[in-house]
Amino acid sequence: MWIQELRLSRFRSYEELRLEFETGAVALLGHNAQGKTNLIEAIGLLSTGISHRESVARRMVSYGAETAGVWGLVSRLDGSISLDVEIQAGRKTLAVNGIECDRLDEFVGGLNAMVFHAGDVDLVTGEPSLRRRHLNEEISKRRPRYLSDLTAYRRCLFQRNSALKRARGASRMPAAVMAFGEELARLGERLIADRVAHVEAFSEPARSLQRRLSGEAETLSIRYEASATPGEMLRALEGAASDELERGVTLVGPHRDDLAITINGRSVRRHASRGQQKTAALAMKLAEATLDAQDPAVPLLDDIMSELDRDRRERLGDELARFEQYFVTGTQKGDLSDSVLRGADVRWVEEGRVRSA
Amino acid sequence: MATYPRAVTRLIEAFRKLPGVGPKSAQRYAVHVLRASMDDARELADAILEVKTSIKPCKRCGNYTDTDLCSVCADPRRDPRSLCVVSYVRDLMAIERAGEFRGQYHVLGGVLSPADGIGPEDLTVGALIERVRDEHVTEVILATSPSVEGDATALYLARLLGAVPELEVTRLASGLPAGADLDYADQTTIAAALSGRRRLE
Q1: b/e map of B162-191 (b: 16 or more CB within 10 Å)?
Q2: Share of chain A above pLDDT 90, in %
Q3: Could you tell me the CATH number of the domain that includes residue A126?
Q4: Distance from the B46 Cα atom to the nearest Cα atom in chain A, whole angstroms
Q5: With contacts defined as CB-CB under 8 Å, which chain A residues touch B120?
Q6: Strands B139-142 and A14-20
Q7: How much is the pLDDT for B31?
Q8: Is the ipTM above a cut-off of 0.90?
Q9: Domain boundaries, position B158
Q10: Which residues partner with A82 through β-bridges?
Q11: Which residue range(s) make up the domain with A343?
Q12: Best mutation site among B123, B148, B155, B160 for testing chain A: the one with the most A CBs within 10 Å?
């Protein structure tokens, strides 16, 4: 899919803006604090209904204005659709083809865009909770049922932990804890199965990406580390019973799981260089962006290229060419690669204005 | 600043304790009572007092009644061997409105919710087990809501009742609302209906 047209109205640093695009690379260049990331944010907003860097909707409205709007026309395999986000009095209104959506999940999915930014490296180096959150977001985009299972799982976990806290120090598991444990296992196994399937789907493309980006030097392996295999979670809970009674919290389940990420068999978190880590995060997310093979996502790379060495940068450009359209930002042409700049639609961003090069 | 006389604020405060009633609504109700006829006001007060003095839980099932046994338990045409377990009386009423069920009920008085400090001992679980044993019950239908707490409560009871020989324990099905268009159903409901699908006989 690709973005045909983007209009902003009183969004961040932009007064009124109307941009038309073609397929292929779109390079947004400009000095710092000129509004490049605001454009990336606006496109991301059309994709998920949520900003990737701002949780307070009101702050996306231009200073002094009441209402902000982002509108986009997206060309998809199955036809064109328009997406509309309006922010007024701190509230967001979402619409698809002019029809207002009652729920977020009716809006999400129209445009599948994926934001890449400098903080992504935390996906491979940071806490396990970051990786779980990423998986939750990515799977929810594709399977709405996953989100309702996740909500129910968290509720059930809260109930079971409350019961465990009360039973702390007891010698046997009270029947009420066991009832919530059964429910937890039923929901948890569904989450684990969805996560395993998702990771299996993108780990092979991610491995090929890392190989190519590194010039065939690095083998990336991403595996879901489940605290219990499907059908075994209830037994795993029983096995942890005495520890759980001692500590008063649930110790088994998808809320404790993680991804095992290695390059050439060694932990990325502990043994890889910064460049390898950045490449791994990029390979992982790019692989996820290609999951919908029929109509791949639109990658939005915000200041990513300048962080890679020249060779990786060139190869990344070759990989991006597989997408129908993608956006990259940088402060100057030298931040990008020849492979990207060849045939790219270059726009200069300056003080809330965008002009073609 | 002028305020209402004490008797009026007392009434407003009383209305505010009702579920879903905020300060504005409470004030509207109180003013309505002030302007109502003496007969209507007395009827309201009497109705409130009567319900509190004459209504009690049914000895057998927990339904509301003004005699020892509620109208369902006292009805000889209702099959005492089939027992439908609900959380609240309002759920019992909902099932009664459907007019399909010809057995009897057992009202738990809530669902398991450890976060709110509600365990099995706060529900009428013991009485349920006694009834199943003493009244030759052959079927128990667990009709708690399909929420996390409702499902866990049903699982808890199913495990407890699993020890009773020759007792059939079932759970209410969850799925698509009857008479509605499929495309109006939310994804969770559709997913539940898909996983609970059955063969057409």
Answers
A1: eeeeebebebbeebbeeeeeeeebeebbbb
A2: 72
A3: 1.20.1050.90
A4: 41
A5: 175-176
A6: unpaired
A7: 95
A8: no
A9: 83-171
A10: A73
A11: 1-112+293-357
A12: B148
